TrEMBL record:
Its EC number is 3.5.2.3. Pathway: Pyrimidine metabolism; UMP biosynthesis via de novo pathway; (S)-dihydroorotate from bicarbonate: step 3/3. It comes from Cannabis sativa. It catalyses: (S)-dihydroorotate + H2O = N-carbamoyl-L-aspartate + H(+). Belongs to the metallo-dependent hydrolases superfamily. DHOase family. Class II DHOase subfamily. One of its GO terms (biological process) is 'de novo' pyrimidine nucleobase biosynthetic process. The keyword Ligase does not apply. Residues 10-319 form the Amidohydrolase-related domain. NCBIfam families: pyrC_dimer. Keywords: Hydrolase, Metal-binding, Pyrimidine biosynthesis, Zinc. One of its GO terms (cellular component) is chloroplast. This is Dihydroorotase, mitochondrial. Pfam families: Amidohydro_1. GO terms for molecular function: dihydroorotase activity; metal ion binding.
């Protein structure tokens, strides 16, 4: 069996920097046309100038002949200014501003401590400039159970934010719950949308503990119960325009995952398209795959869809156990397992 689809984009990607950037870039740029590149480096990308420099380093790391376009983002802090948003828009390089509640996830220490108290003027300028807010939607209160942090974020932050600024474009990144699906579906189409990762579509929280602790299945937001996984599968395979592909591929060197205080993040770039095809096939919805991978994202961001095509063939392939690079190894999602769908450019 063979499918031809418009070239997809990845609307949530961690490319890192330095040697790790060089190691991971080929896995995304071989098949995706563009990607929204997350700004949670050390130090974070908080200015347009830094975003432009980061874009140059990504472009330098591309394989010869690659036409991949990195779409850059700014990391919102308590002190981001409205002027910075104007600069970001004018640059033509920055496509979103990322909200990390301080302490919510990897490299979020410099994130926002009080969105309504500190960031309203910036958010108002984002409405003015038609600049989307990309949200890691979890509260950080240690008293809130880790499995409830997305749901509580929706009720305490996101719903009030959208009531206050209904013209703000918001992408709820990496949604994981039935609550998030319902919330996104209840909002005005074209203003609130969501990205969905392969791991949240294919794995539930049992897989973090199956046969012993599985650090490579640890990501944030944490995997949820099966009912939540089923809800997001239904949402993406329904054909709704509000959901689109965002892998959240988040590489960490093997020793940083397999240790006593391991990092959160799943490195899924090498398997992402195979994994999404599996989801849609299992739901009997392969006819809806292309809109999710290639139409809904650019339509929401207001940029043109890609012109070229890629192919997905039923051609089982074995995922490598790991990928080596200068500083160590990266263990991909589905390491050592066989996937049915193999994507290629022709
Ligand atoms: N998803 C993750 O578990 N980790 C991401 C950060 C993020 O997207 O929250 C990372 O940068 O490692
Ligand atoms: Zn996140
Ligand atoms: Zn992420």
């Amino acid at each position: 069996m063979e499918l031809t689809i418009t070239q997809p984009d990845d609307w949530h990607l961690h490319l890192r920097d330095g040697d790790l950037l060089k190691a991971v870039v080929p896995h995304s740029v071989s098949l995706f046309g563009r990607a929204i590149v997350m700004p949670n480096l050390k130090p974070p990308i908080t200015t347009t100038v830094a975003a432009m420099a980061y874009q140059v380093s990504i472009l330098k790391a591309l394989p010869a002949g690659s036409t991949f376009t990195p779409l850059m983002t700014l990391y919102l802090t308590d002190t981001t200014s409205p002027t910075e948003i104007k600069l970001a828009k004018k640059s033509g390089v920055v496509f979103g501003v990322k909200l990390y509640p301080a302490g919510a996830t990897t490299n979020s220490q410099d994130g926002v401590t009080d969105l309504f108290g500190k960031c309203l003027p910036v958010l108002e300028e984002m409405v003015e400039q038609n600049m989307p807010l990309l949200v890691h939607g979890e509260v950080t209160d240690p008293d809130v159970d880790i499995f409830d942090r997305e749901k509580v974020f929706i009720e305490t932050i996101l719903r009030p934010l959208i009531e206050r600024l209904p013209q703000l474009k918001v992408v709820m990144e990496h949604v994981t719950t039935l609550d998030a699906v319902r919330f996104v579906e209840s909002c005005k189409e074209g203003y609130v949308a969501a990205t969905v990762t392969p791991q949240h579509l294919l794995l539930n929280r049992n897989t973090i503990f199956q046969g012993g602790l599985q650090p490579h299945n640890y990501c944030l937001p944490i995997l949820k119960r099966e009912i939540h996984r089923q809800a997001i599968v239904s949402a993406v395979t329904s054909g709704s325009k509000r959901f689109f592909l965002g892998t959240d591929s988040a590489p960490h060197e093997r020793r940083r995952k397999e240790c006593s205080c391991g990092c959160a993040g799943v490195f899924n770039a090498p398997v992402a398209l195979s994994a999404y095809a599996k989801v849609f096939e299992e739901a009997g919805a392969l006819d809806k795959l292309e809109a999710f991978t290639s139409f809904n994202g650019p339509d929401f961001y207001g940029i043109s869809r890609n012109n070229s095509k890629i192919k997905l063939r039923k051609n089982p392939w074995k995922v490598p156990n790991s990928y080596s690079y200068s500083f160590g190894e990266l263990v991909p999602m589905y390491a050592g397992e066989t996937l049915d769908w193999k994507p290629s450019l022709d």
